[in-house]
């Protein structure tokens, strides 16, 4: 989670509150959503206490963030097998 990103720059200029963890589903298909909100001011959002069962709607209400400015949605699943992709030797 990155906050305090100046409007004319990118996320590297923001303040990282929670580091990014890539998806690692153990089974089945998992839905991932990345959501972008516009903050009302700097230093107005604190890191959530835990990742497990994080609720975006509750977080948005708590910090008066309003509706999302943008969002990205994707599905991911674990690759079959235990060693990833294997290529045949020629």
TrEMBL record:
SUPFAM superfamilies: PEBP-like (SSF49777). InterPro entries: PEBP-like_sf, PEBP_euk. It comes from the Eukaryota. Transmembrane segments: none annotated. This is Flowering locus T. The lineage of its organism: Eukaryota, Viridiplantae, Streptophyta, Embryophyta, Tracheophyta.
């Amino acid at each position: 989670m990155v906050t305090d990103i100046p409007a004319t720059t990118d996320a590297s200029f923001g303040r990282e509150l929670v580091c990014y963890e890539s998806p690692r589903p153990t089974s089945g298909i998992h839905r991932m959503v990345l959501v972008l909100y516009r903050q009302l001011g700097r230093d107005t959002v604190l890191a959530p206490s835990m990742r497990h069962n994080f609720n975006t709607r509750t977080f948005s209400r708590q910090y008066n963030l309003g509706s999302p400015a943008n969002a990205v949605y994707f599905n991911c699943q674990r690759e079959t097998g235990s060693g990833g992709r294997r290529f045949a030797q020629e």
